[in-house]
Amino acid sequence: MRVLLVGAGGVGTAITRIAARRSFFEAMVVADRDLARAEAAVAAAEDGTGRFSAARVDASDEAAVTALLAERRCDVLLNATDPRFVMPLFGAALAAGADYLDMAMSLSRPHPERPHQECGVKLGDEQFERAAEWEEAGRLALVGMGVEPGLSDVFARYAADELFDAIEEIGVRDGANLTVDGYDFAPSFSIWTTIEECLNPPVVYEAGRGWFTTPPFSEPEVFDFPEGIGPVSCVNVEHEEVLLMPRWVDAGRVTFKYGLGEEFIGTLRTLHQLGLDRTEPVAVGSDLGAARVSPRDVVAACLPDPATLGERMHGKTCAGTWVKGTKDGRAREVYLYHVVDNQWSMREYGSQAVVWQTAVNPVVALELMAAGTWAGSGVLGPEAFAPRPFLDLLTSYGAPWGVRES
């Protein structure tokens, strides 16, 4: 397997550090629009084998990415960029005859008249519209294969296969007790993506009704997270799992709730009220004349890079899937989860907890693809594959998962 990894930010760099300890691939080319950043990711991972190399590429340039895949003879593209670049990278992999894997799906667009009741363009719709092309090409696009979406979807399939006869509800629940020294507001993941997820209308799925939307931050609840994290206030957030799980797992209801906290929600509301969540460029004056910049990009530039916060960060992060249903005629409720302690991930890999937890899952998936354990064609989510090989291999990476029975 020869991998083109596009994106050398925090998650991309963590991917190289994790992959360096595995032998399943022949080469990994790390590409970024900033060549120095790609070279730094390679330097962080280099294991003396020469398997890692750096390249410069603009992720929005589909033709350039297609050419790079051919030039470096890569047979799989791993997308570690933000969701703005999903479609050009997705198209480049198909054009080059390569497999594709991402951790976030094509962007949504709210319903023009009823944004808080009906779906417009849903997350992943643009990718699923091209599924027949991938099937005809005999290539696999494995979409939503990070931690959430990704591992959370594997948990859902595992619950359906091994823990339940019938599932009433699946709820992905994400929470943490992370703190960052020296900052009043410092998101542990991309603020661009966080704004996109949290301020878009959340999607809920119900059998018989299908997918529908609610206002942002709806249906608040307090969820008790394991391993000392404790109770965290969670709210509905737009996320890929709600769009993926019902395609392969039979469930009465599917939701995604994120443990944001009132202060974080208040900051996001303020950004929205000021128009600072917008992605469309606005004209601003400067010493060099007029410039056009995206308000959301300005917000991201003013905040610390989440990948650099590891030394200042303390606590744990938890990703998991809560499932309610019946087994052998009896009611059952479980929470399947994965917890990462920031102190451990920094000591072992030099990557902060949220970044490392996101990065380990696509590497595990790539190893299963390289072995032929996970194989297929078309546009498929993690739920389309047998979950047990993934969970066993994840544990062998030093990242054990757990099940809490209620």
Can you give a write-up of this model?
Helices cover 35% and strands 26% of the residues. Strands 7, 9, 10, 11, 12, 13, 17, 18 and 20 form a nine-stranded mixed sheet that branches. A seven-stranded parallel sheet has the order 3-2-1-4-5-6-19, with helices on both faces. Strands 8-16 form a two-stranded antiparallel sheet. The chain has helices at 10-19, 35-45, 62-71, 86-96, 125-128, 131-137, 151-163, 191-199, 240-248, 262-273, 295-302, 342-349, 353-371, 387-396, and strands at 2-6, 27-32, 52-56, 76-79, 99-102, 140-142, 166-176, 179-180, 203-206, 210-213, 221-225, 230-236, 253-259, 282-284, 291-293, 313-314, 316-327, 330-341, 378-380, 402-405. The chain starts with a strand and ends with a strand. The radius of gyration is 20 Å and the shape is globular. The chain has two domains: 2-102, Rossmann fold (3-Layer(aba) Sandwich); 151-351, Dihydrodipicolinate Reductase, domain 2 (2-Layer Sandwich), CATH 3.30.360. The chain is α/β, with parallel strands linked by helices and 406 residues long.
